[in-house]
Amino acid sequence: MPKILVIEDEASIRRVLVKILSEENNTYQVDEAEDGLIGIEMIKKEDYDLILCDIKMPKMDGVEVLEAAKKIKSESTIVMISGHGDLDTAVNTMRLGAFDYISKPPDLNRLLNTVRIALDSKELVVENKMLKKKVSKNYEMIGESKAISHIKDMIEKVAATDARVLITGPNGTGKELVAHWLHEKSDRSKGPLVEVNCAAIPSELIESELFGHVKGAFTSAVKDRAGKFEAANGGTIFLDEIGDMSLSAQAKVLRALQESRVQRVGSDKDIKVDVRVIAATNKNLSKEIEEGKFREDLYHRLAVILIQVPSLNDRRGDIPLLIEHFATKIAEQNGTAQKSFSGKAIKLLQAYDWTGNIRELRNVVERLIILGEKEVSENDVKLFASK
To answer: CA 337 → CA 327, 346, 361, 378, distances in Å?
Structure first.
């Protein structure tokens, strides 16, 4: 049953609104507040599907309530109640995030129609959020092991926030997969996800890559160029292999995190950015800090949430599921029938020492499918292991 909160200081109007909504086929649960301050306290404690709020009230007017409610719960659906002299203000509140407004005294049909439309809109927003949280099949996280289940639970708790996340683990374990999940299940999923491999960019170019540059900043800077932080504005930047970043670039990243501002190389102009930062590394950053290769203050800024991705050797129970997943994907990509793996072949692969982790397993599965017969056998795997 949808929950509605009526915030109205005039007792007679409040009683009418509550009576009309409460008696509407017993469809709505209706709470009431006699002023804005009480209303805000109730919004903090309860999740309301709709809030009806008067504009002119003592202690806290409707515009202040609207702004405060949006800060507490940005998805709040609020319909303003306006007297004839408040119509301009009512229209302006829609620019601030109000869904609609109704006039005093409330017309029964207009009130109920507005409430139904507002609640239908709220339901669509919720459905869209649920759809948005379904991650693209290209970035499925396969596995049912305790370690993978823990990571999935962490992602569910963390994704909707803007908390910075540091993902650690050996090469080839799927750290970028975790980053994609965090982005796609977040409210920033409509924004860009910009990936930067810090290890693949020469140290002398990393600052330009991240923060951009102005024309003439260095020899090859023939025109102004935006950096990755600007490109990720409104979305997420994924700094992969951040342990390989130079100390100079680390200092600038730290400033970007502290102030939400960047400066292009060769410029003293600040550019405001709204970016969520996810970082990953295969290095032991505690050791890097001890050796003076990584800034401790940056580490603490990045590691608000820590997610450790296990090696494949530490989650061997997931290997059968991974083999089936890769076999399906490879068949789809090649337009061929899917090949199966015998039980003995799977057991041999589970016993193998996977130094290259998931990435290595995927390559091996593809090789066995290409070279093997209709069913990949124990002998096929033994032949692979002998090479």
So the answer is: 10, 19, 20, 20
Check if the beta carbon of residue 52 is closer than 8 Å to that of residue 8. yes
What is the pTM (predicted TM-score) of this model?
A: 0.66
Query: Measuring CA to CA, which residue among 167, 195, 161 is closest to residue 280?
Result: 167
Tell me what pLDDT residue 336 has: 83
Domains for the chain: give ranges and CATH numbers: 3-132 (3.40.50.2300), 137-308 (3.40.50.300), 312-385 (1.10.8.60)
Query: Can you list the residues of the chain whose pLDDT is less than 70?
Result: 25, 124-138, 385-387
Instruction: Please give the share of the chain, as a percent, with pLDDT higher than 90.
Output: 60
Tell me, letter by letter, the H, E, C secondary structure of the chain.
Answer: CCEEEEECCCHHHHHHHHHHHHCCCCCCEEEEECCHHHHHHHHHHCCCCEEEEECCCCCCCHHHHHHHHHHHCCCCCEEEEECHHHHHHHHHHHHCCCCEEEECCCCHHHHHHHHHHHHHHHHHHHHHHHHHCCCCHHHCCCCCCHHHHHHHHHHHHHCCCCCCEEEECCCCCCHHHHHHHHHHCCCCCCCCEEEEECCCCCCCCHHHHHHEECCCCCCCCCCCEECHHHHCCCCEEEEECHHHCCHHHHHHHHHHHHHCEEECECCCCEEECCCEEEEEECCCHHHHHHCCCCCHHHHHHHCCEEEECCCHHHHHHHHHHHHHHHHHHHHHHHCCCCCEECHHHHHHHHHCCCCCHHHHHHHHHHHHHHHCCCEECHHHHHHHHCC
Q: How far apart are CA 219 and CA 222, in angstroms?
A: 8
CB atoms within 10 A of CB 53: 26
Q: How far is CA 276 from CA 130, 144, 182, 232, 301, in A?
A: 21, 28, 10, 8, 12
